[in-house]
């Protein structure tokens, strides 16, 4: 197969290439085992969306249990069955399983694979001017491994004793001992297998992205002319390569502890009336390994969203991004710092308190590049000519939730303050706003913006507006009140709060949160309808509907393998010449040569 | 199995619909022409959404104020430990900072979104860079965060590192976690906790204390955590099975409990349970909770169920690390009292050595508590491997 990136041309002069370009692709070649990065991007998006639907339905189920503890619901009986919801009352171990799988699916399958997988695949070749990824084959394998791991993860839901239920962080010994919780039997084994495959998929994808960005940029596309999306996706891939292998090692060691009787993470355990043989291991070691990935992971989730938002915001503001170099520098700074802050998840894990001081220091440092980014986005809006397309609304929403969620990081990142809010709802509020909702907004923004590129049709904007405004209100409605119940000391992952009279006064707030969650989730159906309906019935897109500068809008609407029918375009300027004085239009695509005497004012 | 089948059917149905629409798609290729009405925002859209953005700013402000008024009293109230006030003041400082920043930045963001909403013919200001501005908003967070970091580290060091002097006079208490309950063990007269390991668990010795250790002889087990006011308490945490977290919110104290290792946290309780029950904020909170509970009780009675008991304030130890199915109900009452009452309470408790001796004298009698079924003679080979099973060694 001559599937090597830029060698694959659809209709061009390299006719002598061994590959037959005019061979009609079969259905399987085109839609299933496709080597084309645009098709793979769509595959990622669809798989991610389906997993997202599962993840969100799960969150609704456990939110209903929290709001109306131990009440009977038909939906529980239907979805969970008699064993896990006898008479429609959710049982406590399935509650933990739902929480666990919700976290796993949303973090890894939706926000890592669904977001970065989709847009890295779609945008990297298109925006840097490449025919395809460096290795189309590896790219395909990467997707299919992701698909396989999704299937295994979904299958684990049907295991008799229930799926993994030790929390998405799967801390041993709980995750290692089936005696401790039923979900740590076959369910946990499948979880670990699924994640191991997922990591392999992610690594293949990331290596491909990095190589492609470094090697396959078109003529004139220097690193400082790259759109910020590419910078973000590129650095995301680098962090992924550095940190995912550590999770793989943690998973492998845990598999050994579980199946082969080693003691990496276990020691001195007495459970179900027996002393187990484990000796000398440490659960804290697992926490270190897990969070060495786990923390960079949240930036793997949020950086692509930041990149998409930067691009969409400039294009819709008809104004250059403010502080292009500072934006790149802050991406680099965030990426670097993200690998040395993992200990802030472990302030009270029993590790040496001195380490806590170090991690407090590095953690609060990360607020600096984040603040720079937030201010630069706000300044980008200033004196713009804002085109309020749905993608733009989601981008503004992103900045709003990123600020709201990010600010509480100042509290959680401070080892002292973490003592009393650690593992409470305060944490849930923080990370859902700053990386959950924000990253989802980034993903939605990306979908609304690049839908015409993916499907050649437009999404309905009015449905988009409804989708955004209801989601925006509900997202705050769900997560803002959680700060307050967290400050009241309410721990997360409690099946019901009724065991503590102290928490009785929080019950009403939990009902409000759940109602917001249900309404918010229901309005995602508007999006799903819009997404699937427009795929076939949407208005046909023009080549450059948002009048943007980047290269993907110079390709024809109809997808072709190789992206550009003729030569790959050459790039003469950075991607952010919007409303530049001296030009007729309010946008100057990267392919337009500099005029005589035109200055490169910026970067 | 049925649900798997249902899902399979749904997937196949989805594929069928997709194929159908694909056919539909093929019938209408080539209709694309540029027209103004093509799902791109118009001036009207810009205007409507611009106003909505401004409205959303209002929503954020109003919601915040509403939450502060309605839910602000949820906060835990007067701290009951010596380091508590410092914790609370650091929290207050950070909160003020957050609220100010949040108010300003959200205003700028949404106001700009409203003010600069697009109009046809308007041209945006080409403004790509300003080193001075960027320097300003780099240096401001740097200064503010430097202050916060220093303040935080100072407080952290105060809390986590206990003075040698305070240690001399401290009371050592072991807090022992298991699915899904807590136990405590006081060091007794010698002020030293005896060594322990899960391999010593046998009968009434549910915490696996090494009864051969001289320091263990006067150790006193208890099912309720009593603490004397004003004394330095040093907790030693052990778990017998999985990770737990000992969370004592009113004392601003928390530490994970890790099997195979001993973790530590210390504080000085400063408010007795009785005094805290007289605290204005706590009294208001209790009254509020009891109002809710009596309403609920009335409903329960109407349904023929037994009513809820009225709530009286008590300090709590909660498990705050997912530890299994009943994680949500792993709790223990904490009682803070003056030193004399505490000493009296402790002196009435039997030492572990006495309890063990007693249970050995009448082996036929059912051992008390939940320990009975767990009684399995510890593996003698394991007991001999002494090197790793030192739960706590106090070196003076």
TrEMBL record, chain B:
Alphabetic keyword roster: Electron transport, Membrane, Respiratory chain, Translocase, Transmembrane, Transmembrane helix, Transport
Protein name: cytochrome-c oxidase
Family: Belongs to the cytochrome c oxidase subunit 2 family.
Cellular component, GO annotation: membrane
Cytochrome oxidase subunit II transmembrane region profile domain sequence ranges: 68-163
GO biological process: ATP synthesis coupled electron transport
Segments of skewed composition (Low complexity): 364-382
Known EC number: 7.1.1.9
GO molecular function, one term: copper ion binding
Annotated segments matching region Disordered: 356-383
InterPro entries recorded: CcO_II, CcO_II-like_C, Cupredoxin, Cyt_c_oxidase_su2_TM_dom, Cyt_c_oxidase_su2_TM_sf
Topology term for the membrane: Multi-pass membrane protein
Chief subcellular location: membrane
Record has Transmembrane as a keyword: yes
Membrane among keywords: yes
Compartments in which it is found: Membrane
Coiled coil (UniProt feature): none
Domain annotation Cytochrome oxidase subunit II copper A binding: ranges: 168-348
Regions that span the bilayer: 6-27, 48-69, 89-114, 135-156
